Amino acid sequence: MMKIEKKLYTATIDVQGGRDGKAVSSDGNLNLDLRYPKELGGFGDGVNPEQLFGAGFAACFQGAMGTILRKKNIKTEGITIASHVTLGKDANDGYVLAIHMDVTVKGVEKNVAEEIVEEAHQVCPYAKATRGNIEVVTNVVS
Hints:
Shape: globular
């Protein structure tokens, strides 16, 4: 297990009601109704944990890519990540997640973008936390 040697930031979010509840951050910047998606029998009129996970992972991964690009002094015209989070069942009927991210890096050659994505897997805390635990697929689109 990796241990934090130096704390940089701690987010505090209170959740009540689980998938059919509310999530509010201690600073008030996050204030969301949580709802089951239509595919799981809900009305789809709120945010669900898979959406939050996909947004968090993609934002963190993009940040890691930006750090690497700056260190290598590589300029881009922008990075876009479309994350697709799947909730499913494993062979033992337990719940599991998978994430597939389509990464677009404008203004650099595809092979350079692929190298940056591979390095980001070593830098991004979400990638480190999920390594060996869930399926994580990254696809460089351009």
